[in-house]
């Protein structure tokens, strides 16, 4: 008698929704770098590097010049979204949207089921009806609050933030699973109210992140990094968080992976190229962590151990040096 082996479970399906961008970094009135940008590009980079399959819905103009692994939808009558980021040693980054591609419509979203959806617009391309379509077809949806609360000055494109209650998305919040915000963006929502509706994750750069849910609040420690450019760090964090969730980690452990990928990203300008040895060590530690959790009835006390074991993997790829890294390659600052 031949026994039929049970079919393996299919890998989780992840849907990323957000436009690719062209990012221009300017310091002291001089263009320092021009790179592929947009949260979707940073997140897909993390997922692709971690061997997590994903679909990506993005719109660009005919002027889009980057070779990407997830081809976008081309809007023939619009240019690709462009952001200019102005850096001054005496102040924070100033961000301006100087061109905007078409929004992503519900009809652009495939009519199929996904385990995890990610609403990660940066230039106003996510519409309320698009997010509603996502929550209908995805088991859980993670939203970056910048996709909801950014508005743009009609004259110079300067990015401003509005309160979540005024964004047009507030009525959907009870249907999402995760809401990610930076510490600055968190000022534009009522965290105590939102944590009763979904899991809220607030990132704080070199301080790590804080997780809020209905019954608990937890700080997840950071990884040391030498910041070159903060662009994309929060996006890579969200990508790492989803990688952890796909792997079956609990939220604090998944957020630790987010902190790791975010810390690598701030040491680069543009898309980081994650070291293959680092990625393998991270995968090994994730598998070890999962086995450890299966054998133990109490997991709270070994979260710090997971952080300690990830740290050597993290520094496998850390430049911690003065050279400028652009899209993973060394570049002269002059």
Task: Write a structural description.
It is a single chain. The protein has eight helices and 18 strands. An eight-stranded mixed beta sheet has the order 4-1-9-10-13-14-15-16, with helices on both faces. The protein has a four-stranded mixed beta sheet with strand order 3-2-7-8. A two-stranded parallel ribbon has the order 5-6. Strand 14 (199-203) and strand 15 (209-212) form a beta hairpin. It is 27% helix and 26% strand. It is globular, with a radius of gyration of 20 Å. It is of the alpha/beta class and 334 residues long. Mean pLDDT is 89; it is low at 317-334.
In total, the number of strands is 18
Strand content: 25-35%
Morphology call: globular
Share of helix among residues? 25-40%
Spatial strand order of the main sheet:
4-1-9-10-13-14-15-16
Report the span from N to C terminus: 73 Å
Assembly form of the protein: single chain
- What is the mean predicted local confidence, pLDDT? 89
Poorly predicted tracts of residues: 317-334
Number of helical stretches of at least 4 residues? 8
């Amino acid at each position: 008698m031949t026994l039929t082996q049970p079919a393996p479970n299919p890998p989780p399906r992840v849907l990323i929704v957000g436009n690719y961008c062209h990012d221009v970094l300017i310091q002291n009135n001089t263009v320092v770098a021009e790179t592929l940008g947009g949260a979707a590009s940073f997140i897909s980079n993390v997922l692709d590097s971690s061997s997590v399959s994903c679909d990506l819905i993005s719109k660009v103009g005919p002027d889009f010049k980057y070779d990407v692994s997830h081809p976008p939808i081309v809007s023939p009558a619009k240019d690709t979204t462009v952001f200019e980021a102005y850096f001054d040693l005496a102040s924070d980054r100033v961000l301006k949207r100087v061109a905007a591609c078409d929004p992503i419509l519900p009809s652009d979203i495939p009519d199929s089921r996904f385990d995890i959806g990610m609403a990660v617009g940066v230039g106003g391309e996510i519409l309320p009806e698009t997010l509603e379509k996502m929550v209908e077809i995805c088991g859980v949806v993670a939203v970056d609050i910048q996709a909801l609360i950014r508005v743009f000055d009609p004259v110079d494109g300067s990015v401003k933030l509005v309160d979540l209650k005024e964004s047009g998305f507030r009525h959907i919040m009870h249907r999402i699973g995760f809401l990610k915000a930076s510490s600055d963006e968190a000022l534009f929502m009522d965290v105590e109210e939102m944590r009763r509706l979904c899991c809220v994750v607030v990132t704080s750069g070199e301080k790590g992140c804080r997780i809020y849910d209905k019954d608990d609040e937890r700080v997840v420690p950071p990884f040391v990094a030498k910041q070159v450019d903060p662009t994309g760090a929060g996006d890579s964090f969200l990508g790492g968080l989803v990688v952890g969730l796909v792997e079956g980690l609990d939220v604090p452990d998944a957020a630790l992976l987010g902190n790791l990928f975010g810390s690598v990203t701030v040491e680069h300008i543009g898309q980081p190229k994650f070291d293959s040895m680092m990625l393998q060590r991270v995968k090994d530690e994730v598998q070890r962590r999962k086995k450890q959790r299966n054998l133990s009835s109490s997991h709270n006390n070994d979260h710090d151990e997971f952080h300690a074991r990830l740290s050597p993997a993290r520094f496998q790829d850390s430049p911690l040096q003065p050279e400028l890294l652009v899209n993973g390659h060394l570049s002269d600052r002059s």
